[in-house]
Amino acid sequence: MKLGREGRLLIELLSFDDLQQAIKHGFMLQLGHLSAKSLIKRDKMFFHIVLERNMQLHPRHFGRNLREHLVSKLMKDVEGTCSGRHGFVVAITGVDSIGKGLIRDGTGFVTFPVKYQCVVFRPFKGEILEAVVTMVNKMGFFAEAGPVQIFVSNHLIPDDMEFQSGDMPNYTTSDGSVKIQKDSEVRLKIIGTRVDATEIFCIGTIKDDFLGVINDPTAV
To answer: Which candidate, 39, 44, 34, 73, places its Cα nearest to that of 56?
Structure first.
């Protein structure tokens, strides 16, 4: 995805709370670059790191705009992807170096080693996240915080909330004052993560102080 200059400037002006809201609703990958240093100081889920990648470029892009084509392709290929080791790449913040190209025999393509800086998002055990509920069943509920999927078991939901089946499955308190259903916004705590080569999956809980529903879509 090629990000516009306006999107890059906008994201740098957002507060940390705004960034959390963007992650929660999945907007971060569309908005673009952000101020990495401020994020590092204020939350452990965001990291500013240096990575390397071999980029292949077609001969038609050779010329005085070669660097621009490489950077554009790098952003399109990398932003929004997930690495089990580093996390979700939110945005590329700069290109440190582009090495000498190596011609691939029989194709005409040239491979360039590129070293770049980027902001990655990776949640860890103990982190507090705000997420949007995507599915509810008798086993618990699934929620998403941007690109991260989180499962909260019914054992990790407060004891005074019971599962209610029907057209809109939900967990509701005995007095009906609090309800968790699809599209509800919840604050949860991550208690475990599973890391694969291209995916990060989390287990969360709302059975703790100051956790639970923060916005009910059915509330007037």
So the answer is: 73
